[in-house]
Amino acid sequence: MNQTEGLVQKIIEGLQEKKGKDIVTVDLSDIPGAICDYIVIATGNTPTQVAALADSVWDYVNRELREKPLSIDAGQKDDWIGMDYGTVIVHIFVPALRTFYNIENLWADAPVNSVPDLD
After folding, report:
1. 67-116, pLDDT tens digit by residue?
2. Which of 12, 29, 74, 103 lies 20 to 30 Å from 44, alpha-carbon distance?
3. What share of the chain is helix, strand, coil (3-state, %, to 5)?
């Protein structure tokens, strides 16, 4: 496992810690000109859970790997939060926005891997 794959794994664990749902990874590492190597996408049921998931990722990755995001961007109501770790970008959405943007299907030639929900 390389450093970027390790970061992806810790991001997933941070999302699972707060019951993030429908987690997927999009592997862009073989796509020429891609802005990152991986995109991690997750769903929170409410804006409050979206914010809690982002906080959990920040805390978990910082604690485990001593890495912080380069930037964090959020919608006005925390219905979407994006976190940029350089080689990995994290998107956390409420269900309606996740469906609307459909990010995991933007790259037809990139492998998409689903992570089982922890219930």
Report:
1. 999 999 987 788 999 999 999 999 999 999 999 999 988 888 899 999 98
2. 29
3. 35, 25, 35
